[in-house]
Amino acid sequence: MKIGFIVNPIAGMGGRVGLKGTDGVYDEAVHRGAHPVASEKALIALNTLIDDYTEVLDEISWITCSGAMGKRILINAGIDEKDIHIVYSSSDKIGKTCNEDTIHTCKRFLDEKIDLLVFCGGDGTARDIVSTVKKTIPILGIPSGVKMHSGVFAVTPHAAGPMIARFIKGELNTGDAEIMDLDETLYRKGSWKVRLYDTALGINEPTYVQVGKASFAQINDDEIKNDITDHIEEELDNHLDTLYLFGSGGTIDYIANKLSIKNTILGIDAIYQKKNIGKDLNEKKLLSLLKNYKKIKVILSPIGAQGFIFGRGNLQLSPKIIRRIGIDNIIVVSTPSKLKATPILRVDTGDESLDQEFVDYEMMLVVIGYRMSRVVRITSI
Question: Are 356 and 225 part of one and the same domain?
Fold first, then answer.
């Protein structure tokens, strides 16, 4: 079976430094101290495949790119070089690739008539791929970007391994998967504009594949959100010595606005004694700020339908910051209607041991009203 394998080396670099993406701002991301993460994510997926599904390895011919876009990661994972076939080489030698490299590679994949296209990146990479291959090749994404709202991604890099193996064994079917597109330029300005870009041929697997981000009607939930706001206000009033980090998203923004707190809807803000003392903070600024406070809590809301509280759209909250805060100091809020479509909370922090700490908790309390909570299962897959 021919598997096309492509890595976007710069995917996800803008997350921790607060750029909310890397499209068009690679140099700025590097200037802020960003480091590549995609190769590590891709390597996790490959290692899971190799360690747990050795019986399918002899059936795979890897069709890929040179260097950081593919071959280097495959070699590092222990794939025999005789099973790797290079069909495209980027002119850039430092890993600063662009969407044209992805598009040219996909054209070669079409020529090779590959059976499955596995990529490591985010929504931007998925968009570039489907613009070329359309619905002619099944697509599976290893999540590594800042934005991953499309329905072609495995829920974590670990989950991609078994999906590849089960696809090779003929155990999984394919079907339509939405490719979502978030305007990064508007996103950095605080405007959330997501649109359906196209439909791809994805893999149907309810446990390991994330569904597209779901939007929920605001008006029917406003009364409940007001109750949640009352709960959070009481929390803030009772802990005036605590620094609160407000996460991103519409629910948190609604709460902040009701409390007359200036808020960055798509960023991480620091709130102390009900006043904003830090807006749209990246990892470096957060770490610097946290040194000044003994007590810290974070307020988050899961992504609708997907359930992620860490690892999607808030990479600024890095493993180092999460450990500093402590799992017991994480407050998750959601309306009941949102939870109905989001029965499981998920984490993808980028740190396997930290993810396991969440899994060991098994359950987390989610605030669904004034002094009302619901117990929800938490997982890393």
Answer: yes
Same domain, 81 and 168: yes
For the entire predicted model, the pTM comes to 0.65
Residue 324 CB neighbour total at 10 angstroms? 15
Query: Structural domain of residue 140, as residue ranges?
Result: 2-204
Contact between 147 and 197 under an 8 Å Cβ cutoff? The reply is no
The total number of residues shown for the chain amounts to: 381
In a domain, 214, yes or no: no
User: Is residue 215 within a helix (H) or strand (E), and if so which, with residue range?
Assistant: none
Is 263:256 a contact under the CB 8 Å cutoff? yes
Q: Tell me: the pLDDT tens digits for 154-198?
A: 888 988 999 999 999 999 999 988 887 766 566 556 555 667 788
The amino acid sitting at 60 is: I
Is 186 in contact with 76 (CB distance < 8 Å)?
no
Q: How far is CA 129 from CA 67, 157, 179, in A?
A: 19, 19, 10
Query: Measuring CA to CA, which residue among 48, 325, 65, 313 is closest to residue 184?
Result: 313
